């Protein structure tokens, strides 16, 4: 359920369970309120199927959204698409992006035992990210990738030494955007050659660039069907994430380590990434790995029951409807059991003994420490933000119309903001001037010399002025004046009349 127990949690649970069962325990258990380390080591020996593992971090959104309901909705849409168009394995593709950085995670090396720190060379403290977009088919083929560099202008030498047939582009961020995605779809079409009569299916996530309206129009015109995964479910449903990108990251780290050893003293840059990516893709995007990813995700061969109940277990924690239903069932079962208990004709002492015996039989570790469960009134996730995506056939007419309406509303909002720019700019300018004036005001003068300061206009001493009356200082001569005596046409800084006359 992604809420595992650490070694100390297991020892504490053992103490709580022993206390609940009224078992004898060592005195230091009671003092520390958890079992000893010797008990834990023997517990591991008695249960050879258990081991101490390093868990993989999984976001709350993924644990919540990967549930049977979302998976079944996706499987229904996927089954309807492959049935309607009669897609075969060579017509089904998966497309996704991954980030490659110029600073690798060093691979494990052989070193002397007992040495505390082992170093490895990297090009910098923090790397520069380059996005790589890749598409693979269910038969194990891969389309040459596209690289997106964080540069304003793209040059052909950026992809020198890259995989055969690869292309490149650039933008300021180095991330996939709508225009870059349209370029990759065009590149994909040149290799696959889909038509209206022989369509192909692309499975992809709900990234904003994938919902770019010109891309939808291009796909409809060229016989490409787009089906999106449910939000935050790609770690289980997407073939590339299941079996290709993991080995690819390991291979790219090994290639970068080898490059740094072959080029001592030289810094690894983004222009060296395509060359080291060539061998990494050949070793990671193999037909065996690609077809394995499609199989374990239930995409091809189509398998609606590819995921076990245990894989949906993390979603149970936030399953509020199931929680309330189970509570109602428990209440009803308790109400129906109470009359049957009252009909038992036994002495009170025997009833107590039987109740204690039943209680001891029913006690389990789960009763001592229940599974985590979200409260019914608790708000899950943050409020507001971008609207949550959904699994959809993006090239269908209803989905396309919805995207067009969103784009239309967005353009209307932009126009409305442009029309109100003049009014807002005047307000902002006036507010900025007012704030700057307030900054220049000095209501309290601490130094002894400034207590005898006089106004450069009316010659009144500061000590004789009214309490709380604002004074303002010239930025050049550093002399003071009443704010009421000064002209109100200054903007950022106040310059007295004497300094103005000197100019």
From TrEMBL:
Domain of life according to the entry: Eukaryota
Matches recorded under Gene3D superfamilies: Ribonuclease H-like superfamily/Ribonuclease H, Zinc/RING finger domain, C3HC4 (zinc finger)
Pfam families named in the record: DDE_1
Boundaries of every DDE-1 domain copy: 129-261
One GO term describing the cellular component: nucleus
SUPFAM superfamilies with a match to the protein in the record: FYVE/PHD zinc finger (SSF57903)
GO terms for MF: DNA binding
Protein name as catalogued: DDE-1 domain-containing protein
């Amino acid at each position: 359920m992604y809420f595992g127990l650490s070694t100390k949690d297991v020892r504490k649970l053992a103490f709580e369970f022993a206390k609940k069962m009224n078992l004898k325990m060592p005195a230091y258990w009671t003092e520390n309120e958890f079992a000893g380390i010797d008990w834990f080591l023997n517990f591991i020996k008695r249960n050879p199927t258990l081991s101490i593992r390093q868990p993989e971090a999984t976001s709350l959104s993924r644990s919540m959204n990967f549930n049977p309901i979302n998976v079944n909705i996706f499987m229904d849409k996927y089954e309807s698409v492959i049935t309607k168009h009669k897609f075969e394995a060579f017509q089904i593709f998966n497309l996704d992006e991954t980030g490659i950085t110029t600073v690798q995670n060093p691979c494990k090396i052989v070193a002397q035992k007992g040495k505390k720190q082992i170093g490895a060379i990297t090009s910098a403290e923090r790397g520069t990210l380059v996005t790589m977009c890749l598409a693979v088919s269910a038969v194990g083929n891969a389309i040459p990738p596209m690289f997106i560099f964080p540069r304003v202008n793209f040059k052909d030498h950026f992809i020198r030494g890259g995989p055969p047939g690869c292309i490149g582009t650039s933008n300021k961020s180095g991330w996939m955007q709508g225009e870059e995605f349209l370029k990759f779809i065009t590149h994909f079409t040149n290799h696959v050659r889909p038509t209206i009569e022989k369509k192909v299916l692309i499975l992809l996530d709900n990234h904003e660039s994938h919902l770019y309206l010109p891309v939808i129009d291009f796909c409809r015109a060229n016989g490409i069907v787009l089906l999106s995964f449910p939000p935050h479910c790609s770690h289980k449903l997407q073939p590339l994430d299941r079996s290709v990108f993991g080995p690819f990251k390991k291979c790219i780290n090994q290639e970068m380590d080898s490059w740094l050893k072959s080029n001592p003293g030289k810094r690894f840059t983004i222009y060296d990434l395509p060359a080291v990516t060539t061998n990494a893709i050949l070793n990671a995007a193999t037909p065996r790995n690609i077809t394995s990813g499609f199989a374990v995700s239930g995409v091809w061969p189509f398998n609606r029951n590819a995921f076990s109940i245990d894989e949906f277990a993390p979603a149970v924690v936030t399953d509020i409807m199931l929680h309330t239903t189970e509570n109602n069932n428990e209440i009803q079962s308790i109400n129906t059991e109470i009359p049957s208990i009252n009909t038992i004709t036994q002495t009170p002492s025997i009833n107590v003994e039987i109740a204690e015996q039943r209680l001891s039989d029913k006690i389990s570790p789960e009763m001592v420490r229940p599974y985590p469960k979200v409260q019914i009134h608790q708000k899950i996730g943050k409020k507001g933000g971008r609207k949550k995506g959904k699994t959809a056939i993006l090239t269908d007419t209803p989905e396309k119309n919805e995207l067009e309406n969103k784009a239309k509303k967005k353009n209307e909002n932009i126009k409305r903001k442009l029309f109100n720019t003049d009014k807002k700019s005047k307000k902002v300018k006036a507010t900025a001037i007012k704030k700057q004036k307030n900054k220049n005001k000095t209501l309290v003068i601490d130094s002894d010399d400034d207590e005898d300061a006089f106004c450069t206009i009316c010659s009144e001493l500061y000590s004789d002025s009214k309490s709380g009356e604002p004074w303002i200082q010239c930025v050049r001569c550093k002399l003071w004046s009443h704010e009421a005596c000064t002209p109100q046409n200054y903007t950022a800084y106040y310059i007295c009349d004497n300094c103005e006359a000197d100019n």
